[in-house]
Amino acid sequence: MGRLQVVDVRERLIRREGAEGGGCRYCGGPVLAFDFDTQLVVFCVPFSHKTKRKFFCSICSRRLILSP
After folding, report:
1. Which residues share a beta bridge with 52?
2. pLDDT tens, 46-62?
3. 31/24 Cα distance (integer angstroms)
4. 61: exposed, middle or buried (C-beta count within 10 Å: 0-12, 13-18, 19+)?
5. In angstroms, rounded to a whole number, what is the distance separating the alpha carbons of residues 68 and 52?
6. pTM
7. Which residues, 6+ apart, have CB-to-CB distance to 62 below 8 Å?
8. Fewest 10 Å CB contacts: which of 31, 41, 50, 67?
């Protein structure tokens, strides 16, 4: 029996660049900023379209979250 996928989130990498203003708080390595184009798809119909920015350390590969 097949499985029907109702909701899907598709992410596509738009841009990758070095982030300014410090390093990783775990290892002190340089931080990279990635811009993703995120799209919510329900029954093969695209609904939501959003651009997200995520930060990762280039040495320990951890995802970093900005704190105020």
Report:
1. 36
2. 888 899 999 999 999 89
3. 6
4. exposed
5. 18
6. 0.71
7. 24, 26, 56
8. 67
